[in-house]
Every structure is written in structure tokens, then in C-alpha cells.
Amino acid sequence: MESIKKLKAEVQKRLVKNDPAHDFEHIMRVYKNAEKIGKKEKVNMKLVRASVLLHDIVSYPKSDKRSKRASTKSALQAAKILKRYGYASHEIGIIAEAIHEHSFSKGMVPRTLEGKVLQDADRLDALGAIGIARTFAVGGAEKRPFYNKDDPFCHKRSPNDQEWALDHFYKKLLLLEKKMNTKTAKKEAAHRTMILKKFLNDLKKEV
């Protein structure tokens, strides 16, 4: 665990300038989610913890064209960092693969259980009350309006979360529950998705 403590400290320093939706507190929430999932799964938590800490080590604003390559670049950067911490080559391979595959935009199902746990833990942080906060934090940073005034809830159009913050619910967030890999994550995702749906129902009464 000593190497994890040192790795955690390094990651905290590296992410100090990240936006609120992808800062060190995001990493710590994903870490907490992974710990909960890991207790129910026969998974190598040493590898999961390292993959969580490094999964967003390279991060770009969502409007940046490089954003879709962030997980690939994070995997490459993670491999370099882990060598300094004495991780074996086969461990680095598993961790880097998990990081590469976790991204929603890539649409991949991770090959390893460690990768599945990372992906689930990260996706849970996009749901529930914190998911709502993160959505509008990104929307504010990108100067996106809250919603499309003519069709806020995407009844007659395809969602475009590059234009309107609320569209992110329909483009991604409401799809995540069915994409979870582990039973533990699926259960928690169901609960957090109910929070999203209640928010949307409440919002419909106000706009």
C-alpha cells in the first residue's frame, strides 16, 4: 500500500489544474466506488487501485478534439509512471489495458475483470446527484446553455450534448445503467439512475 500512497500523492499534484468534473476528488470518488465493487468481486485490487488513480492522468476539455484520445494517452502515460513504482510488466499491461478500454466514447467492454471494475466505478460517478453536478460543471465550463428551449427533453430530436448540457442525460447518462459489467455496479447504477430521472421530472415542472 505504500506505493499506492505515493502514487496517489503524485496524481493529486498532477491533477491540480483539472476541471471540477475530472479533478482529484473525481478520482477519489471512483476509488471509493472501486473499493465497494472490489469487495464483491475476486479481483486484484492492487491493479484496480492503480488503474483508478491513473485513468484520467491525461485529460482534455470535452470540446477539445483530443478528448476522445485521452484514455489512450492516459494508458501510455500510466505505463511510464508505473515503471518508476516497481510494477511488473504484466501488471502494467493489465492496468494500461484497463485504462485504455474504460472510456465511454470508445464503446468497449473491458477484457479483464480489473478493467470492468474500473469502467463501472468511473461510470457510477457520472450518475446520481454527483453526476448531475458534474454534467452542469462541464456545461458551464464549455459555456453551453442548460437546455434547448424548443425541446429541452429531446422528444423530437437527437440529443446533442456539444450544444446543450441537459442533452448529456440522453446522450450518455441514462444509457449507463444497462452498460454496467458487475452485479454490484448494476445495483448501485439503478439507484443513481432513479435520482437522474427524478431530477428530470422535477425540471419538467419548472421550465
Indicate the CATH architecture.
Orthogonal Bundle
Overall shape: globular
Q: What is the H/E order?
A: HHHHHHHHH
Largest beta-sheet characterization: none
What is the CATH fold-level name?
Hypothetical protein af1432
User: Which percent range describes the beta-strand content?
Assistant: under 5%
Helical proportion, percent range: 55-70%
The radius of gyration computed from the alpha-carbon positions, rounded to a whole number of angstroms, is 17 Å
The top level CATH class name: Mainly Alpha
Distance between the termini: 50 Å
The number of helical runs is 9
Number of self-contained structural domains:
1
The total of beta strands comes to 0
SS content category: mainly alpha
Task: Provide mean pLDDT, rounded.
Answer: 93
Structure description:
By secondary structure, this protein is an all-alpha fold. The protein has a single domain (2-204), classed as Hypothetical protein af1432 (Orthogonal Bundle). The protein has helices at 2-14, 24-40, 45-54, 70-84, 89-101, 113-124, 128-141, 167-171, 183-204. The longest helix has 22 residues, at 183-204.
How would the blueprint of this fold be written?
Layout: H1 2-14, H2 24-40, H3 45-54, H4 70-84, H5 89-101, H6 113-124, H7 128-141, H8 167-171, H9 183-204
Helix pairs in contact: 1-3, 2-3, 2-6, 3-5, 3-6, 4-5, 5-6, 6-9, 7-9
